[in-house]
Write a structure and sequence with these properties.
The two termini are about 15 Å apart. β3 (about 85) and β4 (about 95) form a beta hairpin. The strands form 2 sheets. This protein has a 5-stranded mixed beta sheet, sandwiched between helices. It has one domain (about 1-200): Uracil-DNA glycosylase-like domain (Uracil-DNA Glycosylase, subunit E, 3-Layer(aba) Sandwich), CATH 3.40.470. Helices cover about 40% and strands about 15% of the residues. It is of the alpha/beta class. The chain is built from 8 helices and 7 strands; from the N terminus they run αβααβββαβααββαα. The longest helix has 22 residues, at about 180-200. Belongs to the uracil-DNA glycosylase (UDG) superfamily. Type 4 (UDGa) family. InterPro entries: UDG_Type-4/5 (IPR051536), Ura-DNA_glyco_family4 (IPR005273), Uracil-DNA_glycosylase-like (IPR005122), Uracil-DNA_glycosylase-like_sf (IPR036895). Keywords: 4Fe-4S, DNA damage, DNA repair, Hydrolase, Iron, Iron-sulfur, Metal-binding, Nucleotidyltransferase, Transferase.
């Protein structure tokens, strides 16, 4: 994984590297029974070089704790490895901008390589961008969130692909929600499904 991370630092597969501070690769144990995939690093992640260290990461930490999932059992990454943003006319705060389909596709080989090395049993897609990166553009998170699905066949993974995938909202949606309590409870309910699935499978078999 270290070699893969070093290689990603020099990625020029799309233009996002030009303005981002650095590549923000995934972090966590390898192998890991559980893998979370977000959209892209935020402002804080871009500065620190670690995924999920900003406000959304705080929500994720809390929801993992409340669902009974140790964070050190989860590998955390993003579908896109560079921060995409716009600068407002006034002020210095960088504003998040959704990555394009082409930018998501450009990063897909890195995500596939992470899946191959981490070998998770279960993948959780946080938000629509991450879900579509794995499940296709026709996937609608509003219709299928919180539902355990069979992981799609990906040629590069072969028989080592994860067993299951579940999509839910991104923790940043909780931060932005008018009713944060309700948004948090919805996210927690979905992650509790993941916790139950992990517990039902018992110790992770070596593959």
């Amino acid at each position: 994984m270290n070699a893969l991370q070093r290689a990603a630092q020099g990625c020029h597969g799309c233009g996002l590297y030009k303005d981002a501070t650095q590549t923000v690769f995934g972090a966590g144990p390898c192998p890991a029974p559980l893998m979370f995939i977000g959209e892209q690093p935020g402002d804080r992640e871009d500065q620190e070089g670690e995924p999920f260290v900003g406000p959304a990461g705080g929500v994720l930490d809390r929801v993992l704790h409340d669902a009974g999932i140790p964070r050190d059992e989860a590998y955390l990454t993003n579908a896109v490895k560079h921060f995409k943003f716009v600068l407002p006319e006034r002020g210095k705060r960088r504003i998040h901008k959704k990555p394009s389909d082409a930018e998501v596709r450009a990063c897909r080989p890195w995500l596939t390589a992470e899946l191959r090395i981490v070998r998770p049993e279960i993948v959780v897609c946080l938000g629509a961008t991450a879900a579509k990166a794995l499940l296709g553009n026709s996937f609608r998170i509003t219709k299928s969130r919180g539902i355990v699905l069979d992981f799609p066949e990906i040629a590069e993974l072969g028989r080592q692909r994860p067993r299951s995938v579940l999509a839910t909202t991104h923790p940043s949606a909780v931060v932005r929600a008018p009713d944060r309590h309700a948004a948090y409870q919805g996210l927690l309910a979905d992650i509790e499904v993941v916790a139950e699935l992990l517990n039902s499978r018992g110790p992770r078999a070596k593959r």
